[in-house]
Inverse folding.
């Protein structure tokens, strides 16, 4: 616990990192970075929705130096608003072009999948639409796209790729009793215990983590293709510790940092770091269309929440 | 509030605002009035956070005109009312039995019904979920589940009721134990039937207690965040409190909408609070014999078994089931593996220490809770003394400030603190440090020490102080040698309650915790949302043990203290 009472000076050297995703990954990266550089890291870890809300609430009086979101789209939005500092890390040389821009670069990549409880006794789903079948009546959960950045990317991806068909798919899912439940683990928990049988659009690293700890679930990438959600990492222009922030980005993209990312079951951003899970080249992807504008983005969310009756 | 012996000459202070009182008022103003003021300001002036007073009251129109606001208000009202009614239906019969009859294992039931102080509500809600949902622990044991019930309006009401009904239970059983059956006996001697005597005599005597505690459950129900947040979404139940948190912490945020809803919720709670306060003030137990004497409880006779069964059933549902589910999840390796010997592990507990995250959260929470207890204990004793034992002007204001947080929903305090301290004009701000959590907890929990200390102070005759002063003791000496020792047991028990609640407070922690600071409640909540629920429940077990241990030690200590010669 730091004893400083809001005196920025005392924090001159410390780095504030806001990150979506699993707390343990953020913590391990921070610890590794602290050990290597001696720079203290203050970590705020929450869902993408909460991280973005905090950033917005603090717009007048910003605190974050580095931001790691789970939605590529949020980075694009912030970049457009002119909030981001351009930085190309030397370590980004090994990151494929599709995973970097001048202002932000992927920390790692997750893919959206179906998680299926193998003890459910239901037929193994192969594609998204299988979960709209009668066999899966009242058996499906989905993370809330307003909270989970990756789920939002899936929603936008399906919308861009399938258009009207995506609307029909979600209407069928709704009619089939799919429930939308908070962020990722909250959608996964009932499937683990068997209260529900499958998650529509889970992020794969959470599910792989559960598989490794012995849960009897299967991670399925839909035959029709899926969407990957690169997790953008960016430095804010308002950062008062820009050198430290750059060093942090370098660290996350170093082989050492990428190993930690891979250990959290994310696909490493660097193509020269391996992993025990399927990598980008192993996945069948829906073509990722160009940028969704913030307006489309909000409209999509609103349509979705209207359909699933919340907010 | 009336002084205990208004006729006696003023003992301590001249009727003027003294410097210490001024300091106390200023501290409480900072702690209580400022955040509330900023909620009101933000609601009135939507652009105040950018330093502008433009378009006053416009967000009222927007928020109140919003098609979602009225249903939210209505839902919240309905939820609070149904929970209050359900709490009366459960709490009054059990409380009456406990107060009037010799119930077997009475102490055990009291202990089990104290659970809300032991199990944080969100933890209990997660426990019920793991227990009742399809393929949950209940289904594993008896072959059926209650998932459909749990994830419905009635289910959320039931969960909340099981959490708050003890308020009614304890209030009724204590009131009845004090009234006893003597007057009823008299009525029966004069020929009234058993029902008639209960209806005409006993019931009117405890009616204020029932009504006041029911109102309290209403307030608790509309304020509590964890239960609707854990169960509500799946049940399609949206309440003001969850909606405020959402507007404030989910992107895109809606500051003024959240403030208007906060104001609505605060008004609802305040209205109920004043009603409750008036009921308690008008409550009068003076029956003709003067002091109530300890009545001997009656034997239940053949009714023992059904009564025992009723107590056991409620205790099982309210306390044992969630505790069991929490412990079971903490000790099983995988959720899908279910409950069996091969699936047992201590891994979730070691995970708390391994990555340092859980241990850090625990240390932070315990540290914050200790500080909160010390701060509220000190402020509480000083305020209570100023209110009860002095004639100083400004007492009424002090009284109002110390009681106010009791009526304020936690989420409103959190919103107020953000609005207050995230302004750029402060030279120094606790925002984004752990200090803001300390402010929030201290504001919310201040009423406990104030209430306990003033109750204790009222029982101390003024002549004790007067005698000390006559014999030349200084104010300071009087405080240290007379007031403090005599109020200590009550003060310490209230500080332990503060500690227990502060160490697991959820909604303010979620809203206010700065980067780098994690509390027990945030840890558990995040494990539930984003991580391993097993790790979260392991932390839950540790929390319950810690606060249980503290409360137990406190009860033991204060009993010893008051028993001492």
């Amino acid at each position: 616990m730091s004893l400083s009472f809001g005196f920025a000076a005392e924090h001159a050297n410390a780095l504030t990192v806001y990150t979506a995703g699993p707390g343990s990954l953020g913590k391990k990266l921070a610890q590794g970075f602290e050990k290597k550089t001696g720079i203290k890291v203050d970590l705020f870890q929450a869902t993408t929705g909460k991280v973005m809300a905090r950033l917005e609430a603090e717009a007048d009086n910003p605190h974050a130096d580095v931001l790691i979101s789970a939605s590529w789209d949020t980075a694009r939005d912030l970049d457009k608003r002119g909030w981001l500092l351009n930085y190309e890390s030397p370590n980004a040389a090994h990151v494929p072009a599709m995973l970097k821009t001048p202002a932000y670069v992927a920390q790692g990549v997750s893919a959206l999948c179906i998680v299926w409880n193998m003890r459910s006794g239901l037929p193994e789903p192969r594609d998204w639409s299988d979960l709209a079948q009668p066999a899966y009546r009242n058996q499906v959960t989905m993370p809330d796209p307003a909270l989970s950045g990756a789920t939002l990317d899936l929603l936008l991806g399906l919308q861009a790729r399938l258009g009207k068909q995506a609307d029909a798919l979600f209407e069928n899912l709704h009619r089939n009793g799919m429930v939308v439940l908070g962020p990722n683990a909250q959608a996964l928990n009932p499937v683990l215990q068997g209260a529900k049988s499958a998650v529509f659009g889970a992020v794969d690293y959470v599910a792989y983590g559960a598989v490794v700890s012995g849960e009897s679930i299967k991670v399925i990438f839909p035959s029709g293709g899926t969407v990957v959600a690169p997790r953008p990492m960016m430095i804010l222009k308002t950062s008062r510790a820009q050198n430290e922030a750059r060093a942090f980005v370098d660290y996350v993209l170093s082989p050492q940092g990428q190993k930690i990312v891979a250990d959290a079951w994310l696909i490493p951003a660097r193509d020269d770091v391996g992993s025990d899970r399927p990598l980008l080249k192993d996945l069948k992807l829906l073509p990722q269309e160009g940028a969704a504008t913030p307006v489309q983005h909000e409209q999509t969310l609103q349509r979705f929440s209207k359909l699933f009756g919340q907010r | 509030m009336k002084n205990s012996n208004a006729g006696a000459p003023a003992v301590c202070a001249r009727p003027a605002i003294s410097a210490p009182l001024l300091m106390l008022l200023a501290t409480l103003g900072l702690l209580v009035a400022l955040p509330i003021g900023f909620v009101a300001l933000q609601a009135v002036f939507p652009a105040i956070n950018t330093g502008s007073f433009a378009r006053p009251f416009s967000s009222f129109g927007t928020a109140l005109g919003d098609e979602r606001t009225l249903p939210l208000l209505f839902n919240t009202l309905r939820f609070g009312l149904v929970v209050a009614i359900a709490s009366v239906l459960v709490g009054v019969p059990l409380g009456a039995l406990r107060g009037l009859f010799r119930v077997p294992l009475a102490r055990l039931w009291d202990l089990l019904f104290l659970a809300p102080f032991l199990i944080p509500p969100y933890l209990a809600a997660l426990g019920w979920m793991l227990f009742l949902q399809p393929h949950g622990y209940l289904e594993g044991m008896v072959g059926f589940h209650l998932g459909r019930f749990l994830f419905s309006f009635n289910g959320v009401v039931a969960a909340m009721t099981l959490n708050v009904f003890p308020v009614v239970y304890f209030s009724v059983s204590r009131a009845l134990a004090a009234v006893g059956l003597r007057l009823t006996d008299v009525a029966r001697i004069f020929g009234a039937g058993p029902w008639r005597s209960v209806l005409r005599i006993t019931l009117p005597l405890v009616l204020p207690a029932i009504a006041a505690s029911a109102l309290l459950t209403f307030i608790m129900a509309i304020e509590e965040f964890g239960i609707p947040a854990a169960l509500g979404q799946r049940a399609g139940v949206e309440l003001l409190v969850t909606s405020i948190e959402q507007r404030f912490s989910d992107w895109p945020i809606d500051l003024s909408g959240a403030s208007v809803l906060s104001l609505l919720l605060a008004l609802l709670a305040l209205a109920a609070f004043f009603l409750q306060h008036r009921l308690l003030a008008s409550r009068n137990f003076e029956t003709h014999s003067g002091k109530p004497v300890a009545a001997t409880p009656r034997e239940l006779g053949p009714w023992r078994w059904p009564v025992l069964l009723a107590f056991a059933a409620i205790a099982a549902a309210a306390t044992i089931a969630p505790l069991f589910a929490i412990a079971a999840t903490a000790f099983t390796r995988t959720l899908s593996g279910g409950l069996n010997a091969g699936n047992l592990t201590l891994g979730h507990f070691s995970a708390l220490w391994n990555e340092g995250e859980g241990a850090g959260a625990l240390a932070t929470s315990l540290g914050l809770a200790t500080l909160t207890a010390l701060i509220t204990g000190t402020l509480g004793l000083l305020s209570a003394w100023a209110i009860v034992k002095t004639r100083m002007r400004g007492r009424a204001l002090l009284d109002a400030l110390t009681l106010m947080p009791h009526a304020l929903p936690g989420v409103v305090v959190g919103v107020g603190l953000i609005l207050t301290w995230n302004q750029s004009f402060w030279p120094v701000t606790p925002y984004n440090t752990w200090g803001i959590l300390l402010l929030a907890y201290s504001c919310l929990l201040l009423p406990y020490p104030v209430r306990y200390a003033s109750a204790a102070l009222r029982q101390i005759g003024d002549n004790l102080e007067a005698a000390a002063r006559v014999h030349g003791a200084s104010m300071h000496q009087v405080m240290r040698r007379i007031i403090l020792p005599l109020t200590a047991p009550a003060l310490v028990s209230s500080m332990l309650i503060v500690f227990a609640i502060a160490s697991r407070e959820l909604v303010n922690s979620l809203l206010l915790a700065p980067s780098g600071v994690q509390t027990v409640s945030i840890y558990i909540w995040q494990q539930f949302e984003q991580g391993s629920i097993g790790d979260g429940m392991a932390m839950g077990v540790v929390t319950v043990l810690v606060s249980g241990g503290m409360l137990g030690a406190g009860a033991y200590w204060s009993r010893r203290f008051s028993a001492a010669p």
About this structure: The longest strand of chain A covers residues 104-117.
